[in-house]
Amino acid sequence: SPPLFYPYGEQEGDTLSPKKDDGSSPAIPLLRPFSFFGQTYSQIYVNHNGDLTFNQSLRAYKPEPFASCGKKDIIAALWTDLDNSLGGAISYSQSTDVTLLSRASKDINQYFPGLNFTASWVFIATWDKVPYFKDPEKVRSEIFYLFFVIFFLLLLFYKM
User: Fold this and answer.
1) Of 83, 103, 134, 135, which has the highest C-beta tally within 10 A?
2) pTM of this structure
3) What residues are paired with 138 via a beta bridge?
4) Rounded CA gap, 43 and 33, in Å?
5) Eight-state DSSP code of residue 82
6) What helix, strand, coil percent values describe the chain, rounded to 5?
7) Contact by Cβ (8 Å): 61, 49
8) Quick check: 130 and 82 in contact, CB under 8 A?
9) Alpha helices in the chain (DSSP H)
10) Strand runs labelled E in the chain
11) How many C-alpha atoms does 41 have within 13 Å on its Cβ side?
């Protein structure tokens, strides 16, 4: 059977985000425009505390009710107080590789039968063994992995 995770990490050509508590990647130009809740975006930020934003980075480490975020669209799958300056790695990539797109299409159609989905672009963000800010010895035993494809389908994978 195929591996659970898609290829990720520096050895796979991913870009590493800078080591900085409450930091973020720089603005990442997207290979394809991305529509999210009626807005179309051409860039994204991989924020170190486990979320993605579109118009600007987000340093907040404490999750807030989404209404208090104002008009900031956010994908907050793991929003918590992480500190990659203490260890671990945060990386990201995007691809239009035919083999990767074929696998993404197959995986999504397996979990969403009847969708007849064909991926044309993927974006992958990975928080790999990044410790918590106040407890650097407590490293998440899993890798948090965020994978999405154009038309906004989101898959979360955890490796125990």
Assistant:
1) 83
2) 0.81
3) none
4) 8
5) B
6) 15, 35, 50
7) yes
8) yes
9) 98-111
10) 15-16, 28-36, 39-47, 51-53, 74-75, 89-95, 122-128, 143-149, 153-158
11) 23
